[in-house]
Amino acid sequence: MSSIKIESVVLDSSKCGESPVWEEKSNSLLYVDIPSNKIFRWDSLTKQVQEITVDSSVSSVAIRQSGGYVATVGTRFCTLNWEDQSLTVLYTVDKDKKNNRFNDGKVDPAGRYFAGTMAGETAPGVLERHQGSLYVLFPNGTVEKYFDHVDISNGLDWSLDHKIFYYIDSLSYSVDAFDYDLQTGKIANRRSVYKMEKEEYIPDGMCIDNEGKLWVACYNGGRVIRLDPETGKRLQTVKLPAEKTTSCCFGGKDYSELYVTSAWGGLDPDKLARQPEAGRIFKITGLGVKGIAPYAFAG
Ligand SMILES: O=C(O)[C@H](O)[C@@H](O)[C@H](O)[C@H](O)CO
Ligand SMILES: [Zn+2]
């Protein structure tokens, strides 16, 4: 039995930390703070954090095969050059929905960027329903809307055999699966693979491990849970010292560390005083399981 250790690696806290992505070549963790319009890169060797401020909310970031990054900023799919801090807009979605913004996004095993939208929130979880959609940016620059009627488009990942796409619309309190065609990127046959328990609250970001099990960050639940999408059973719960746990990814040497983002936004002053680590990035070691490298955008 391994012994689990949790530490916060970045002392600065995010109002809504999200989209952790491990970048092997720089030994760094990328992540964003959505409402502060910032993208961060934490170097695990030097412990230094670099940041880039963009012009509106930035909800996800991913590595680009040809160098640099891609990110979802406001309602735009963009490329990001870290050196000169420039953003280039590739495509704007939801032009008819002025209050919408992108939320979570991730690159699929074939290098397509999947990302979904949501209506702007007046408070966490409080928003006009069914305004979001799931979009896919293909490497050739075209964008397709896969479905709409989404409340809060959130966690996503793909099975190890690339035959299933896992997806979370937070306010459905469910982790869903679709059949997934790697060649075309098409998805079909939506079903639920896990329904959240009451004390797990809202499913947010998610990642897969190298045994094909899903790790889901539980917003308001202060934990990550490990799920078996085949049996629908929860296998493990790891509690964290911040109740608004937002997303997770594996990283570090051999992808044996689980990085978890969190948020302080939405906590009342009492709770904030009792959760001094809210909004930090946590590193969980000793899980005895590893993750896989993130896929890079191929366009
Ligand atoms: O972290 C995210 O994915 C959203 O941007 C947040 O707004 C929360 O998920 C939401 O508030 C939960 O209800
Ligand atoms: Zn999220």
From TrEMBL:
<keyword id="KW-0963">Cytoplasm</keyword>
<dbReference type="InterPro" id="IPR013658">
    <property type="entry name" value="SGL"/>
</dbReference>
<feature type="binding site">
    <location>
        <position position="101"/>
    </location>
    <ligand>
        <name>substrate</name>
    </ligand>
</feature>
<dbReference type="GO" id="GO:0019853">
    <property type="term" value="P:L-ascorbic acid biosynthetic process"/>
</dbReference>
<keyword id="KW-0479">Metal-binding</keyword>
<protein>
    <recommendedName>
        <fullName>Regucalcin</fullName>
        <ecNumber>3.1.1.17</ecNumber>
    </recommendedName>
</protein>
<dbReference type="GO" id="GO:0030234">
    <property type="term" value="F:enzyme regulator activity"/>
</dbReference>
<feature type="active site" description="Proton donor/acceptor">
    <location>
        <position position="204"/>
    </location>
</feature>
<comment type="similarity">
    <text>Belongs to the SMP-30/CGR1 family.</text>
</comment>
<keyword id="KW-0106">Calcium</keyword>
<keyword id="KW-0378">Hydrolase</keyword>
<dbReference type="GO" id="GO:0005509">
    <property type="term" value="F:calcium ion binding"/>
</dbReference>
<feature type="binding site">
    <location>
        <position position="103"/>
    </location>
    <ligand>
        <name>substrate</name>
    </ligand>
</feature>
<dbReference type="GO" id="GO:0005737">
    <property type="term" value="C:cytoplasm"/>
</dbReference>
<dbReference type="Pfam" id="PF08450">
    <property type="entry name" value="SGL"/>
</dbReference>
<dbReference type="InterPro" id="IPR005511">
    <property type="entry name" value="SMP-30"/>
</dbReference>
<keyword id="KW-0862">Zinc</keyword>
<feature type="binding site">
    <location>
        <position position="18"/>
    </location>
    <ligand>
        <name>a divalent metal cation</name>
    </ligand>
</feature>
<dbReference type="InterPro" id="IPR011042">
    <property type="entry name" value="6-blade_b-propeller_TolB-like"/>
</dbReference>
<dbReference type="InterPro" id="IPR008367">
    <property type="entry name" value="Regucalcin"/>
</dbReference>
<feature type="binding site">
    <location>
        <position position="154"/>
    </location>
    <ligand>
        <name>a divalent metal cation</name>
    </ligand>
</feature>
<dbReference type="GO" id="GO:0004341">
    <property type="term" value="F:gluconolactonase activity"/>
</dbReference>
<feature type="binding site">
    <location>
        <position position="204"/>
    </location>
    <ligand>
        <name>a divalent metal cation</name>
    </ligand>
</feature>
<feature type="domain" description="SMP-30/Gluconolactonase/LRE-like region">
    <location>
        <begin position="16"/>
        <end position="263"/>
    </location>
</feature>
<dbReference type="GO" id="GO:0008270">
    <property type="term" value="F:zinc ion binding"/>
</dbReference>
<feature type="binding site">
    <location>
        <position position="121"/>
    </location>
    <ligand>
        <name>substrate</name>
    </ligand>
</feature>
